[in-house]
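FORM 7B: Structural annotation worksheet

SECTION A. Query
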Amino acid sequence: MPEHDGKSTTARREQRIADTFVALTDTLADDFDIIDYLCVLTRSCVELLAVTAAGVLLADHRGQLHPMAASDEVTGLLELFEAQNDEGPCLDCYRSGTLVTNATLDADATVWPAFAARARDNGYAITHALPLQNRHAVIGALNLFADIPDPLPDPELDLGRSLAEAATIGILHQRAAARGAATTSQLQHALTSRIVIEQAKGVLAERMQIHVDKAFTVLRTHARNHNQRLSEVARMVAEGADLDNAQDDSVGRR
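SECTION B. Predicted structure
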């Protein structure tokens, strides 16, 4: 029986990995939402790798990194702190185009004192940063965190690199389909959408008396169940609609 259970667990994990890679190739749909797409990446990393949290920063046309998605609210704020203070593993990873792996956040060993202190305050002990890179194009970085200081095993590091590369290819394909001239406006739209999503999370958290992480799950689940864009549902909730009315409004405008 234990052997059978082990095989079933392995099979489920392999299927989850396969499903994730399929999801990361789905960027050419008309309703593509980059925030939701990157949430798939961060949450899949937490599910599939020996990490506690994950976040993504994307670069704009000037090479400045912006936090775009995270597996939870705490990590999202940490990524914002990293970008605003111009210090942290994602910055080094993006600028060099190379991996940052098994970097301790211990005060006596870290090369990012301010960032490491904030990360330790949030319970993290070790971090990794993987470039969102395809050949010579680096468009951002994927940050991974763990609350225990154990190194990430090589097979999991390889899987993380593959997930980051698949996401990069997906984003680049989507940008190519939208034509290069639209890349800047696409990122600006994504940044605006992220602000609206944050507002909607706050509204739902207050309205439903739940944590903001749970509020985001409610938003995302509703959008997927009703075949709506996450950013559109968030806009309507931020403007005061409840989720049922957000659905009715969307249907009425089609």
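SECTION C. Observations
The CA atoms of residues 26 and 170 lie 7 Å apart. The chain has two domains: 2-177, 194-252.

SECTION D. Sign-off
Analyst initials: ____
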